[in-house]
Amino acid sequence: MVRILLAESEPHLRRLLQEELEDEGYEVLVTGRGGEVTRLLDSYQPDVVVLEILLADMSGLETGRIVKGTQRKTRVVYHSHCRPPRDLSSWGGDDFVLKSADLDRLKKVVHRLALAA
User: Which of 20, 63, 72, 104 is least crowded, fewest Cβ atoms below 10 Å from its Cβ?
Assistant: First the structure.
């Protein structure tokens, strides 16, 4: 089963995203903190990490760079209201999804990255 590690600061959105991704057949572990993502990498071994940019303890960008630096096969998708740079590789991510009430784009990106993991 594909493992997703999701970091989202808003509790209601964390629950919604977890339910939606679990309905797609993924095993999903959620947190609201980037530091917890970095602590869970070795034990959980996610295939895909979904990161909000504005996390309370450390930025999603910093968290993503740590993920890519230690777990090179793990895919990182940023999920944020912020617009990405033209060159997403400068953020160290594999993809970016603009937050929206429609979760179809996020699910499609996660699916594609999960297949590539």
Answer: 72
C-alpha distances (whole Å) from 66 to each of 1, 11, 22, 34 are 24, 23, 25, 10
CB half-sphere exposure, 5, CA atoms < 13 A: 25
pLDDT digits (tens, 9 = 90+) for 47-94: 999 999 989 899 888 999 999 888 779 999 999 887 766 666 667 789
Integer Cα distance of 29 and 69 in angstroms:
21
Q: How far apart are CA 22 and CA 39, in angstroms?
A: 22
Q: Would you state the pLDDT for residue 87?
A: 67
| Cα–Cα distance for residue pair 32/67, rounded to 1 Å | 16
Token pair in block for residue 66: 């740590």
The pLDDT of 38-54, averaged and rounded, is 94
CB 91 within 8 A of CB 78: yes
